Structures are given as C-alpha cells and as structure tokens.
Amino acid sequence: MPVNAVISATFSQAMSASSINASTFMLAAPGGVAVTGTVAYSGLTATFTPRGGVLAYGTTYTATITRGASSPGGGELMGDYVWSFTTLTPGAPGVVSVTPLPGATNVAVNTVVSATFNMPMDPSSLNTSTFKLAAPGGALAKGTVALDSTHTMATFTPANGLVVGTTYTATITTGVMTAGKTPMSANYVWTFTTVASTVVRAWFR
Q1: Is residue 200 part of a domain?
Q2: For the chain, how many structural domains are there in total?
Q3: Strand order through the sheet with 33-34
Q4: Which of 69, 87, 99, 140 is most exposed by smallest CB count within 10 Å?
Q5: 119 shares a domain with 60
Q6: Is residue 112 located within the same domain as residue 72?
Q7: Under DSSP, is residue 1 helix (H, G, I), strand (E, B) or coil?
Q8: C-alpha to C-alpha distance for 30 and 7, rounded to whole angstroms
Q9: What is the residue-wise DSSP string for 106-145?
Q10: Which DSSP state fits 62?
Q11: What phi and psi, each to the nearest 5 degrees, are found at residue 179?
C-alpha cells in the first residue's frame, strides 16, 4: 500500500454515521500502537485518514471496525472486522491506486480495470499472466492488458465485458517489474462486485 493511503471499509447496508468514529474504526501499527487520524462516513463507505496524511514505509498495519458500528436501527456487526496491510518499502515498485476501488459494489459491467504504479514499469512484464481477473471459483476472465505511455498505469480490458452480480478478484503479481527489472515484493490483490442488474426499462405512452 502507498504511505499516503486512505484506509476505507464499505458496508453492505447504510450505517449510522454517528457510530462510525475513532472508537469504532481504528488503525494500529506493530505492537498495537494506535495511529491517530480522522474518521469519516459517506454513502456506504467509512474512511480513516492518518494524521499528517502519511504512514511509515515498510510497516504492517492492522485496521479494525468494531461491533460498535451499527445501522440506523441499532443493529450491530456480528463481530469485529479486522484486516491488515503493509506499506511500500522506500524505492520499491508497487501499486498506489486501482479502479474499481477495493470493495467497490455496483461496478458497471463495461468497466476497464486499472492499476497505477509509483514508478515506470517494464511493458514486457505486464500481460494476462501478471495482471489477472478472476470470477468466483478462480475462472480467469479473458481480456487484454496494456500499459499507458508513461508506463505507470496498466489496464485490463475484459474481452466480453463483466458478468452482472459477480464478485471479481483482480491480481497484480510479483512478475511485474520496473524497467530496471526490480519486481514488486508481493502480489497486489483486490476485489469488487458488479452491478446486480442491467435491465433497461422502456416507457410507453
């Protein structure tokens, strides 16, 4: 993860904004040291912005959404939701942003999946073996992979669009490397879900 990342969590339904705060959305450095920051909630997504806007390089952080996060009716989460991530090592290649966002829902089926790197990458290292899109069960989506003129943004264009109501897993593997042949230190993996329906309603007079 980039050191200037904003940590986010997307819920399956609307939550009570007042229940999403620094007591229910927390970030910790190794040893359980709390990271201070600002928590916000909009739509279905809660965000945690670290104080100063940056995290430490090469550090594994643990994020927690506690059971105190509740719906407007008072319904709480069934348990704490905990996940971890590691920030980039200084000078190491890595993914700094992706489209669709991790955990995004209602993604259009004609979406082109993309990943932006923190430095120029070797075009020959970007292909369907190193930038993959998988449906549930691990079936790989067919498509084409390309790198833009700056060699910093890769795109995966599905051959026949995406399937409605499907959660996809996108993966950038350690086979991707810089022009100087330095590979990423770990796979970058994220998921997103397509829109549930593409029914078009016709109106008649």
Answers
A1: no
A2: 2
A3: 33-34, 25-29, 60-65, 81-86
A4: 140
A5: no
A6: no
A7: coil
A8: 17
A9: EE-TTPPEEEEESS-B-GGG-STTTEEEE-GGGPBPPEEE
A10: E
A11: -60, -25
In the chain, the largest separation of any two C-alpha atoms, in whole Å, equals 67
pLDDT digits (tens, 9 = 90+) for 159-203: 999 999 999 999 999 999 998 899 998 899 999 999 987 655 444
Asked whether residue 76 falls in the same domain as residue 111, the answer is no
Q: Does the CA dihedral 58-2-171-62 come out positive or negative?
A: positive
Same domain flag for 55 and 107? no
Residue 81 falls inside a structural domain: yes
Closest CA to 97 of 190, 194, 27: 190
pTM over 0.85: no
Contact 185, 174 (CB under 8 A): yes
Range of the domain at 24: 7-86
How far is 6 from 83, CA to CA, in rounded Å? 14
Six token digits for residue 63 = 């994020």
- The DSSP 8-state label assigned to residue 70 in this structure reads B
Residue with tokens 């007591």: 23
Contact 198, 164 (CB under 8 A): yes
